[in-house]
Write a structure and sequence with these properties.
The chain is of the alpha+beta class. It has a single domain, classed as Ribosomal protein L22/L17 (Ribosomal Protein L22, Chain A). The chain is elongated, with a radius of gyration of 24 Å. The model has no long low-confidence stretch (mean pLDDT 87). Belongs to the universal ribosomal protein uL22 family. It holds the Pfam family Ribosomal_L22.
């Protein structure tokens, strides 16, 4: 999903993929497919095949400047 979002931002919006960050990710409930499984004595058990909608939003941020190394070692 993330690769698809990056490819869409790069091709559709002409954004640099190196500057993309994940803005939001959420999953919503999709339609439920209702199926039946045959059981003994003519009964049927319901099977619910659940689906979902996954949404990934990316945004373009400028690259951060390189930070200077701290002096002094670990203690």
């Amino acid at each position: 999903m993330l690769a698809s979002a990056i490819a869409n931002a790069e091709n559709n919006l002409s954004l640099d993929p190196d500057t993309l960050w994940i803005k939001t990710v959420f999953v919503d409930e999709g339609p439920t497919l209702k199926r039946f499984r045959p059981r003994a004595q003519g009964r049927a058990y319901r099977i619910r095949k659940r689906t979902s909608h996954i949404t990934v939003e990316v945004e373009s941020r400028p690259k951060p400047a390189a930070k200077a190394a701290k002096k002094g070692g670990a203690r």
